[in-house]
Amino acid sequence: MKKGSFSSGGASRVARPAFRVAGAEDVPALVSLIESAYRGESSRAGWTTEADLLEGQRTDAEGVAAVLREPGSLMLLAESDGEIVACCQVERREEHAYFGMFAVRPTLQGGGLGRTLLERAERLARDEWGAAEMRMTVISAREELLAWYVRRGYTRTGERSAFPYGDERFGVPTREDLEFEVLVKGLT
User: Fold this and answer.
1) How far apart are CA 156 and CA 149, in angstroms?
2) Per the confidence metrics, is the pTM higher than 0.85?
3) What are phi and psi of 145, to 5 degrees?
4) What is the per-residue pLDDT across 138-174, written as a single tens digit (0 to 9) for each?
5) pLDDT tens-digit profile of 40-98?
């Protein structure tokens, strides 16, 4: 899929968002959005904060730019009034697609924008890439977030992977029991 506009959806609290694929010029705004949704005091305005689990950064410009450079990977974003208000990574893998780096501006969380963006990512993976399923990893301590994905049709697989302790590019854990759980949803 090339960079360009999608038709807008019906997320509430955002005046007619436009959806498009991010380009290199969007990296600084994407990093700012992702950081604001997960780290620090600004993240506490929404419900997706990880501030009680992790300190430090969630991502950086190099990490986001790497997603944009990777073949088969893109960042889908939502804009309102010229500002990026939500984003997610969608990556084509062998038999499935991967969903990550999902962020919605904290003051807009709970209004349906995230659900709309997730649905668009699923359609893109299914319709444009032929992916049979979407996979993601979520910190297993994030029960409220896991439940949100389950309500959207994802299944908790019980499959776990280690959190990258010691790699401060992903944050500084405040607990010693963090790990990721794999969630999956069929797209056919």
Assistant:
1) 9
2) yes
3) -70, -40
4) 999 999 999 999 999 999 999 999 998 988 888 888 8
5) 787 888 787 887 888 888 889 999 999 999 999 999 999 999 999 999 999 999 889 99
Domain boundaries, given as residue ranges, for the chain: 5-132
Q: Within 13 A of 120's CA, how many CA atoms are on the CB side?
A: 29
Bridge partners of residue 173, in order along the sequence:
54
Q: Which of 92, 98, 104 is nearest to 37 (CA)?
A: 104
- What integer pLDDT is reported at residue 94 of this predicted model? 87
How many Cβ atoms are within 10 Å of 135's Cβ, its own excluded?
Answer: 20
Contact in structure between 36 and 105 (CB atoms under 8 Å): yes
Please provide the distance, in angstroms rounded to a whole number, between the alpha carbons at the two ends of the chain.
Answer: 20
Could you give the CA distance from residue 104 to residue 168 in angstroms, rounded to a whole number? Answer: 23
**Residue showing tokens 């790497």:** 66
Instruction: With CA atoms as reference, report the closest residue to 45 among 1, 107, 103.
Output: 107
Confirm or reject CATH 3.40.50.2300 for domain 5-132, answering yes or no: no
Gyration radius from the chain CA atoms:
16
For tokens 């890439």, what's the residue?
129
